[in-house]
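Hi P.,

Sorry for the delay on this. The queue was packed all week, but I finally got your sequence through. Input first:
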Amino acid sequence: MRAVVQRVSSASVTVEGQIVGQIGSGLLVLLGISHDDNAEDAQWLAHKIVHLRIFNDEAGKMNLSLKDVAGRLLVVSQFTLYADNKKGHRPSFARSAPPEKAVPMYELFLKILTENLGVTPETGIFGAMMDVALINAGPVTVILDSKNRDL
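Then the structure:
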């Protein structure tokens, strides 16, 4: 699983003119799921995101996590995070999981966040054409990959 995590002052997802997910201060997570992701990947990534210390403490240092600041979470599925751009100018998405694999993994990720980590995320609509609006606070953006944990 791959995630682009952005610290935001606010973020929202709109589908067909209707806001379907919206948060104030917290994290916007763009989530990509690969064909070889499993429950362990979902658990690792969810835990990492919730405990990632990218919020400022009283001294202005990034020492606090989403849980520490009681921040909100907005998770948006994004298969394009697994784009392969090695050849030509048109990306290949062959590494992205097909919907029959991606949907259950996406739902498992959300379940882990809610049940195991105590963070109930707002979401977009899986597979829909979504407009994502955000105010990136900092700006702070972090890339996480469950298969490349050195990022």
